[in-house]
Amino acid sequence: MVFAYCPQHADEQVDGVWANDEDGWSFTCDRSGHVLPGNYTWTKQLEPPAGVAYTGVVEELGLAVELPAALKRHTGVWVEYGVLEAAYAASRPADWERLVTMYGHRALGPSTYTASKFLARTLSNLARQGAVVLRMGPATGLWANNSTISWWSLPPEPEWDLRHSFDDSKLTFEYVPGQTAS
Ligand SMILES: [Zn+2]
Questions:
Q1: How far is the CA of 180 from the centre of ligand 1 (A)?
Q2: What pTM did the predictor assign?
Q3: For residue range 7-30, what is the model confidence (pLDDT) as tens digits?
Q4: Which of 91, 101, 132, 151 is in the most buried spot, having the most CB atoms within 10 Å?
Q5: Structural domain of residue 71, as residue ranges?
């Protein structure tokens, strides 16, 4: 069993639930008294394998700015992880191609690390800083083999029934350079 302490309740131990390869473990604290009303959810990814560059890349690509900027394409709704990934790919195509070349992607076949793991980890860190908000929800379309997946929004949190899924977007993996399956 994996557990962690709530970042906003130092004495509240929460059990982790395995979400999927990209998001890793998810944790939800249902105690009252969070900075924003309601439950607080966070994720913890597996460490990148040895030799995989992480920190420098986040800074070099300005992801603390670019990922929230990509979410602005869908203001006022929760978007499924894949929708955000596609929005980032559309807004920063050269950077996205570089990440896919460096890390791989599920659309290109099995890979130890992927651009999606990298972005999900970065988003998780941004959520802890309050720049984005996170909930776990259903995975759809080409991500549906993950039973649950992260959903993202800019603060303040929209109502949970305001959601835009990968399926709603009618997206394929055409936004992944070099993809063969869609
Ligand atoms: Zn808490």
A1: 43
A2: 0.94
A3: 999 999 999 999 999 999 999 999
A4: 151
A5: 50-175
